[in-house]
Amino acid sequence: MLEHLFRSESALTRHRTGPFAEERERYLQHCAEHGATRSALRVKANELLWLSQHLRRDAAQGIDIRALQEIARERTSICKGASTERRLVDIGRPWLRFLGWWRAPTAEIRFQNHLERYVTWMRDERGFSSSTVVQWRSQIRDFLQWYGRTDRPLCALEPSDVDVYFATEGTRRWSRVSTSNIAAALRVFLRYMANCGECDPRVAEAIRGPRLYAQESLPSGPAWSDVHRILAHAGGDSPADVRDRAILMLLAIYGMRSGEVRSLRLDQIDWPGRVLRVFRLKRRQPQVYPLLLSVAEAVARYIDTARPKAAHPEIFLGLQAPHGPLSSGAMSALVRQRFMALGIQALHRGPHALRHACAARLVAEGLTMKEIGDHLGHRTTGATRTYAKIDLLALREVGDFDLGDLE
Hints:
Oligomer: single chain
CATH superfamily of the largest domain: Intergrase catalytic core
CATH architecture of the largest domain: Orthogonal Bundle
CATH topology of the largest domain: hpI Integrase, Chain A
Strand order of the largest sheet: 1-2-3
C-alpha cells in the first residue's frame, strides 16, 4: 500500500519502520477500498505516522480523547496552523476506532446495569426495532441520571418522584406528544423493573401522560408543488445532487421511511422486471412495488456515475471517504437543507415530511384509506386516518354547498 503513496525511498523507509506500521498500513488499505483518493491517503499516512510516534506502547489498551488531544496540541507546537490540531484528531480517531483502540468517554450512571438489562430485554425478547431501542434507551437513561442524583436505590422510587421529574425536566422543554411518549417509555421500563423485583409495581401504574386526542393534528408535509420544487433543486450534475434526487424520489413517490431508504440494498431492485422490494420496518415484512421509470433512471444514474466504489450492499453512501451507509442524521440533514435552500415553510422539514406529502397526494387523487395504508406500509387503517383530514378540496365542496331556501 505505502509504495503506491510514496515514491521516495527515504519516505517509504520512514513509514515502514515507524511504530505500528502494520496497523497503519492496514487502515490505509481499508480507506483505499472505500474510495479515499491518493492525496487523501498521503495526508492520512503522514498524520498517522506522527501519531504513532507519540503513542504509548500499550496503546492497544485504549486511547481516549484527552490523550489524543494532548498529542495533537504537541503537533501544533511544530506545525503551526489553525487546523493542525483538528486534522490530527479527525484522522487519528477513525484509525483508533478501526483498530478497536478507541475509548469513547462514557458517563456511567448509577443504574447502568439496570439500563443495559432492560435494553437487552427490549431487543432480544420483545424484538423492538433498533430505532425504538435507541430512543427509549436515551429517554430512560435521562430519567435514571436524574434519579441517581437523589442518592436513593431504585426500590425507594415513589410516584411523587416521577411527578417531580416531569414537572422539573419537562417544563418548557417537552411538547405534549413528547411528554406522552416519555411517560409511556417510563411506564414500560418500570413495569419491567417491578417484574424483576427492583421497584414497587405501583409506581409504573401511577404514571399518567397528557391525554392525546385521536386525529387532533394535521399532517405536516409540504404541498406537492413544493415537492416538485425540491426535486428540481436536486436536478444538478454534482454527486450530491445525483444521490439526493434519487433519495428524495423514493421518499416522496413511494412514501418510504428514512430507515427504509438508508437500508435499501442493491439486490432489492429487479432491473429487468422493473420491481422494487422494500422491507417495511413497521410491518417487518417485504413489500413489492413497480419500479417507476423516473425513479429507475434516477437510481441508476446515481449508481453508475456518483456512487462511491465501496464494498457495502446499501445503495446510498456518504460522499466523504471512507464511504459508509448514510446515518439517520445525514439523511435528515440532506432533506432539511433542500427545504431551507428553497425557503419552503413546513412544520417539519425532514424525510418524514415527504412521506406526509406522498399521503396527501394519494388522498387528493381519491385513493381509499386501505389503498393509501398499503402504499405507505401501515399495519392498520387507523394509522392512515390522519391523512383524511387533508383533503381540502373535498372540504371546500362541502363548504360551497348551496343551502337554497334553507337559509
